[in-house]
Amino acid sequence: MKRNSGFRITTCFITFLFFCLLSGCAPKSEGIVVLENKDIAYNKFTIEGTDIYPQVYAVDWINEDTVLDSRFRLYHLKNKKAYFLVFDRNAREPLVSPDKQYLFYRISKRNQLGNYYMMHLPTGKKIVLPIKEQVLQPSWVDNQTILFMTGKGETFSVNIFGQIAKINDSFQTVKEEEGYTSHLVRVGEQFFYLDGAKLMVWNQTTNEKKQLMDHVYDMVLSPDKTTFAIEKLIPKDPNDKGKEFFVGLKVLMLMDTTGKQQKIVAQSNEIMGLNWSGDSQKLSYLIWKSYATNQTELHIADIRKAEISILATNIQSYNKQIKWSPSGNKVLVNGLLKIDTPEQRHALYILQLKHSNK
């Protein structure tokens, strides 16, 4: 796999994985397989320990030892006890603030709008937000404000005090059959978003709108709001560059907020699950190795040192973002686990990372 960015992938992991595939030494578990490597001189990240929690699906971290699960419970990893935050089975769409102090969510019955809420997590106090339409693509701008769109193509912001404001621009420009607007994020006066597969930016002050890139499938902004991790489709054949239709290959690249492309981190048939660590220095992602078996690998890239480590395999391809703990010493992965039954069960994996400065 060619890498033209200067990123160096840990070769001993590839050798180990290749050997296991040939010899059949890989574990037969249906769950996530953690790769072992004792020679940390070649690997900056290894997994110090793995904890598995069957039948738990985590939404996000609350602190280093607690996660919010999909049932709106605070799940404590040490004693495996859970406490409901919201006592309503119709609660949905949770979104935790970057500082883990607030929870944005919705309570609605099927085919009804319901109400949107903002909860202060340390106290459990909540307010009803003055939102009258269904929220699409919500994202936290900072620790107090959420940016979102509606089904009508309008854009609003709402803060933790319940104050709502309309953004005076419509980001929907492509025809409905060509795609829709998504991934809307704000950096200062600039709004970045995907219009179909086109990466666009709109400046609220100058009202200027321009296209930065095409064939983009995913983008995630770093916590310090300086760098985008972008999943983009490029032609496998360089001779197809510039053509509208081509056989493609996914690349993971970095772009700053001026639109300058910085470097390519990885390339594969499929890349997913992009997420930044809290210090904006490390990037986790999944590489899909096989369409036939849904085989994936968990990678971590140290952006500053241009080093990549492969930590685990057999991660199911339906996984969404992998979440870093506040300290950056753990990551959570929602995966599958085989439990003596014909069907697969979901499970939460907590991977404890060890970093070497060698």
Automatic annotation (TrEMBL):
<protein>
    <recommendedName>
        <fullName>Lipoprotein</fullName>
    </recommendedName>
</protein>
<feature type="signal peptide">
    <location>
        <begin position="1"/>
        <end position="28"/>
    </location>
</feature>
<dbReference type="InterPro" id="IPR011042">
    <property type="entry name" value="6-blade_b-propeller_TolB-like"/>
</dbReference>
<keyword id="KW-0732">Signal</keyword>
